[in-house]
Amino acid sequence: xxxxxxxxxxxxxxxxxxxxxxxxxxxxxxxxxxxxxxxxxxxxxxxxxxxxxxxxxxxxxxxxxxxxxxxxxxxxxxxxxxxxxxxxxxxxxxxxxxxxxxxxxxxxxxxxxxxxxxxxxxx
Length: 123
What we know:
Blueprint: H1 2-10, E1 14-17, H2 22-36, E2 43-47, H3 54-65, E3 77-80, H4 83-92, E4 94-97, E5 104-105, E6 115-116
């Protein structure tokens, strides 16, 4: 499974997770864990069809509220109920790499140092 994730890591600007089972959850948490370890700075986008990921997002918020993970760990998650809404959210995002911490700020604020994701399809 890790070989597949490493290939995706090298060939993508973000990860999109569709509703799935244990393997999907494993990949989501593996990617999130690697982000916390500064292995990558890519978004995890959840296609939240019919609220499939609502309880997972609620759990992650609870974990953050109880101080098991920092708020910054949740900034890499984006959720939308349709593929169009998810792409629209990705297109609207700008990011800035903090040179001191090497962390990416995914907030929606504007800055001349911020960059947009490359969402063009390369075949």
